[in-house]
Structure formats: C-alpha cells, structure tokens
Amino acid sequence: MPILPRQALLLAWIAAACVGFVVAPAPASPPAMTHEEIAAIQRGIDRLVDDTRAWQRERGDVVIPWPEAQGHLAIVIDDVGRELHLFEQLLGLRFQLTFSVLPGSVYAAGAQLRLRGDRRRYREIMLHLPMEPIDASHMQAGAEVRETFLRVDDDPDTLRAKLEFALGIVPAAVGVNNHMGSRLSADAVAMDSLMSVLRDRGLYFVDSRTTAATQAESAARRAGVRTLPRAVFLDEDPTEEAIDRALSQAAKMSRERPTVAIAHPSPEVIRVLDARLPELRRQGVGIYPVSQLLRAVEPAGVP
User: Fold this and answer.
1) Which domain covers residue 227, as residue numbers?
2) Tell me, what CATH number does 150's domain have?
3) 53 domain-assigned
C-alpha cells in the first residue's frame, strides 16, 4: 500500500525527533552549592526550629503525657455555635477541651471551621444532639426553636433519619452527646435505635445524664458503641464559686478513673478554667479529648 504524503511527513518528523534525542548532549550538571549557600539554608532551618519552639512555649497546648498524669479529665463544652465571643475565648485556652456543636445553631458551620483551623492545636468536635426533655416547653424557648429535637413519638426510622441529618450538619463530629433529653434518653427502644447509626459510623457516645433514668449508656454498650457517662456538670450552679468547686470535684474523680465533665460557654466558666487549668496541670491532672479517655478504658460494652 503506497505511503501518502501526510504519512510520509509524519514518519520523517518522528525519525528526526528520535535522532535528535540520540545526538542531543546530556543536560549540564547543576552547579555545586557554595559553603555560603549551604550555611544560609541551615540558618533558615535553625530560625524555623526556633520559631516553632517559641510558638509551642508561648502559645501551644499544655499537655501532660498520659502515662505521666496523675489524673485524666475531659471537659466538654456544650451548646457550641450559638455565639462566637465566648467560644473564641474557650478555643484560645491552651488545653484540649472538647467542643459539642448544636446542629441548629447559627454558627454551627463557622465554629467547626475555627475548630479545624489550626492543625497544631487539635480540638475534638462532637454533635450535641437535641432530644426531648420532660418539660416540652423547653424545646420552644429562645434559640431552641432552631433545633430539630428527637422526640418520644418518633418511630425508629424517624429517629435515625433525624440523627443522620444532624450528623450531616456537623460532619467533623467524632462523637455525640445529648442536648436536654431527660424524656427521650429514658426510652430504651429509642436509644437502641440510635446506637446502630453511631456504631456503623464508628462514633462514640457521651451520656450527658440529664435524668437518673437514662438508658443511653446501657444502649450504647449493648450496641458496642464506645461510651462514657458525664460525671460532673461544672456549671449546674452557674456562679464562679460553684464552678470552681465542681472542677475540683471532677479533678479529684479523675485521679481515680478517666472522668468527663460538661460545661457551657459563659464568662464564669472561662474565668475558672483560665485560672484553674494551669494549676491542675501543676498538680498532675491532664486535660484530654474524650476519645483519648475512651482509648484508656474498655473500648466497647458487652452486649
């Protein structure tokens, strides 16, 4: 079959290119670095190391290695996303607090971005899941009207759908705790229906224990979901003196076993934590994310 002119031209171009590759000289070796250039690079590295150490010393997290701590305490800040001023002050503390975000809050997305904004300072994020309280009027009070509450009249599929929806709003969550819920958390069937979602997603659950009749922790253990109960509400009495006493109680408990305390954004909570957490560190009590406490205890319940 005769070669067409265009095909001949293409073959000639390919042949010329191959010859060019064969006869072309090897690329020149890069010039050797001078001693001055090497020294300048080393000075730059030294400055970077010094700056990193200075940042860690002045602004970095204050952490006691787990084996060296005499007490192990997690502090969960609830109701995150409803305001930013107090949130920013809590975020600025040099201790690894855990932040639980309300899915219906106006700043839910922004708070998650801020919490993930500095990889040098890990801050654990939870979903603060709204659940029906005994007094239903609380679901209509103030900012609560923005929340989609899980209710005792919801069937299991609806409960799971509401949970999935809330997790979609707080995608950075690695765990969940209940917001209110004194009525719903006492319903074992409802709690069982929710725990399958958490198990499948690999999330943990902290039982806020808003009622002594809670079935949430037991349901989590039956489902094989990692779980811990709230041991102390730091601001059940919101006065500064009472918060200080509650923190001392939580610290004492943490010397016996890993302990979860819960607080809410307020000027009183911030003042107490700002003053007392460095003192607790000197006394050997470390502040850790909830997930780190869970790794130190039985990771899942026995069905």
Assistant:
1) 69-296
2) 3.20.20.370
3) no
- Give domain status of residue 18, yes or no: no
Given a contact cutoff of 8 angstroms between Cβ atoms, the answer to whether 197 and 169 are in contact is no
Nearest to 291 by CA among 252, 251, 258, 264: 258
Q: Say if residues 235 and 203 touch (Cβ distance below 8 Å).
A: no
Tokens representing 129? 């899941």
Backbone angles phi, psi at 18, to 5 degrees: -65, -45
Band (pLDDT 50/70/90 cuts) for residue 302 is very low
* Cα 270 from Cα 93, distance rounded (Å): 9
Provide long-range contacts, Cβ within 8 A and 24+ apart, for 163-166. Answer: 163/129, 163/194, 163/197, 164/197, 165/103, 166/103, 166/127, 166/129, 166/130
What does the alpha-carbon distance between residue 176 and residue 201 come to, in Å, rounded to a whole number? 11
Integer Cα distance of 171 and 125 in angstroms: 9
Q: Taking a C-beta distance cutoff of 8 angstroms, is the pair 160, 197 a contact?
A: yes
Asked if residue 168 is part of any domain, the answer here is yes
pTM of the model: 0.84
Q: How many domains does the chain have?
A: 1
Of the given ranges (6-10, 151-155, 290-294), which has the lowest mean pLDDT?
6-10
- The answer to the question of residue 96 being in a domain is yes
Q: Can you say how many angstroms the Cα of residue 96 is from the centroid of all Cα atoms in its chain?
A: 10
